[in-house]
Hints:
Elements: E1 3-6, E2 19-25, E3 34-39, E4 42-48, E5 54-58, E6 72-74, E7 77-79, E8 86-87, E9 93-95, E10 117-120, E11 123-128, E12 153-159, H1 163-171, H2 176-179, E13 193-201, E14 204-210, E15 226-233, E16 237-244, E17 247-259, E18 262-271, H3 274-278, H4 280-305, E19 312-314, H5 319-336, E20 348-353
Antiparallel strand pairs: 1-19, 2-11, 3-4, 4-5, 6-7, 7-8, 8-9, 10-11, 12-18, 13-14, 13-20, 14-15, 15-16, 16-17, 17-18
Helix pairs in contact: 1-5
Amino acid sequence: MAVSGVMNDIVSDEFLRDIWYFALPSDKLKVGQLLPMTFLNEPVVLGRLSNGVAFALRDICPHRGIPLSDGRLVGDEVECCYHGWRFDSSGTCICIPSLTDDQEMELSRIKINEYPLYESAGCIWIFVPSDFRIQTKTEIKSVIPSQFARPAMVEKLIFPCHIDHAVIGLMDPAHGPFVHQSWWWRSRKSIHKKSKKFGPSELGFSMLRHTPSSNSLAYKILGAEITTEISFKLPGIRMEHIEAGRNTLIGLTTVTPLTSNSTMIWHMVYWSVPYLSLVRPVLRPFLKRFLRQDRDIVKKQQRGLKHNPDLLLVNDSDVQAKWYFRLKKAYAESKQNKEAFINPIKATTLEWRS
């Protein structure tokens, strides 16, 4: 029997915490800038100090509740625009201008929640804890090889949906011939049976290295001897690592929840293929169109989802969606029980038509 589950029982408004999310590309945050953002329904202000180090704080002044992002950076201190209170990059209050010389106050006891950041390969990642008083920060290492300092192409879109629908929509292997119909990609006439080997990987799973499908014409621009491996990692990181002879191309897609019904998608491409830089102006419109097709189908989906219908998951094409929910559940339980995360995914082969 192909039908294997009802998705309504799994999708939840709860977000994974105690985990690293993608925040933004490094070059989007300038020295001396305060940038307001929202992550997991939480207001956050990001900034970059004079030495180039990035930081992130809760975007609310503890005095009267105004966003700190409405203020400014004075040297390396965040100054609130309402009463001039100042905070260092760790969130500690260091100045209250209204205090007189004889009014003693222990300013160091006034703290704003600080979000740990990690920056590598032109990417800024943010750690969102479940409890700021007891941060059990997990380790993070760059998903991009050290040979790449920054992405060659970057695109951003906002999907009007919960992160769960954005993630499983992007990893869905069967929608391509219908959503991404293009002369350079696929068509309905090209649908055929596919068989791919999968295995567990760090906080997720991977479609093991293989030769790309014959109906994916876009790969052929890279030349011959092409192989690819596609991996998914919690909370919403999809990476395709393509090897074409001695050349490498990496497509990194990150899915970050802003609110319960708004999700930020960044797609970054890294390459070591010299001639691709020359045709970048030509490639960019194709990338934008591809991502917009995914966004537009999600927008249409929302008109149906507002009626809270039962949604069926079908083997084998929806197994990756099932794995995503299993991974989320296992990770949340490991943090709640303060136990090591055990990956529930087992090596297997999946088959579908697309």
